[in-house]
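Hi support team,

I submitted a single chain yesterday and got back a structure, but I'm not sure I'm reading the token output correctly. Could someone confirm the output below corresponds to the sequence I sent? I've pasted both exactly as they appear in my results page.

Thanks,
R.
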Amino acid sequence: MSNPVNTLGGAKTTGFVTVAEMPPHGMITLRGDFAAAKFKAAVKKAAGAAIPAQRKVAVTDKATLSWMSPDELLLVLPYDKAAATQGALAAELDGTHFLAENVSDARVMFQITGEAALIRELVAKLAPVDMSPEAFAVGDIRRTHLNQIAAAFWLEDDSRLNVVCFRSVARYLFDLLEVSAVKGSEVGLFA
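Hi R., thanks for writing in. Yes, this is the structure output for that exact sequence:
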């Protein structure tokens, strides 16, 4: 197995918030019947958490488990655990209708840190999502578009938001976030 590398070399920029490329993470797309006992048990074993509710994220010491659609989850875990976890899921779910695909090398993750209101403002500039604290809280996830590209994002806590996108558009997203976070471009949406 080759050593994982950051797509953008660990790019980082600071404006009214800080945007940083995170080190490579393991990511597994998992699809199946959320109501099936065998599927629920396999997910719990792999993630250390039950399947989260719609548009929610479950965080454990093992992984982050995100609801992506009515039959799809995204499991984010240490990069070096992804292949073994994908294999274990495939073995656990053998004989059922499922998909467990290691997409670690096809995705990149960024973290936006700073003041909560400014993180919300940055994302609100780019996504068709209500970013008010009443509509989007810690533990919520949205799978949408940031400007012209598909992405998913969730609040890890009030001062950190994680964004996942396809590796092929990482430079575009980083540049978009950098320009959108330029000091002086704040509009005071959540002040």
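A quick pointer for reading it: The longest strand covers residues 149-157. Let us know if anything else looks off.

Best,
Support desk
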